[in-house]
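re the bet — no i am not wrong, look at it urself. input seq straight from the record:
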Amino acid sequence: MIDKIIFATGNEGKMKEIRLILEDLGVEILSLKDTGIAFDIEENGETFEENAVIKAKAVMQATGALVLADDSGLEIDYLHGEPGVYSARYLGEDTSYRIKNQNLIERLEGVPDEKRTARFVCVIAAAFPDGRVLTARGTIEGMIGYEERGKGGFGYDPIFWLPECGCSTAELTMEKKNELSHRGKALRAMKEEIKKLWKLEERKK
């Protein structure tokens, strides 16, 4: 029986959200930091799914544990889906998000509301020790705002506007963000897939 799940991230902010959503699985949820593993994984896939699977399989092969990994990003329709899978590397990995956000706002200068549609996408991959791989996708639809708003989020959150909430994702409470976010949706979908699999295995015994 699986007694732990490793999530392939060292980001503690992300881990709080992950532990909160996965706690009812009843197993220990560890970050890469918790395991003491440190290695660079080249994310050279062309889709969010491919990158998430690359990460999950690499860590599963190193640990022999059930591993979850995510890949996420921002897709802007007017920019043909940019920055997409290159969201973290857009304008260079070491470039601040203030500069990245400002650049995207400038690229959309003069573009009306109805053409500023965008979405955050998150794909979670699960790599099981027996070689099985599952993926789950979550999205949140919105639009690109005209300025940065809010201090509560990170990355592109301050420019991602939710018309139905009348605020940016950086202005949401943590509870509301977990409920609406692309990562929250993908995590909950993956949790259900894992539960189904475990129930199936129990029946086979």
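see?? The beta strands are 4-7, 28-31, 66-76, 82-83, 117-127, 133-144, 160-162, 167-168. told u. also The longest strand covers residues 133-144. so pay up
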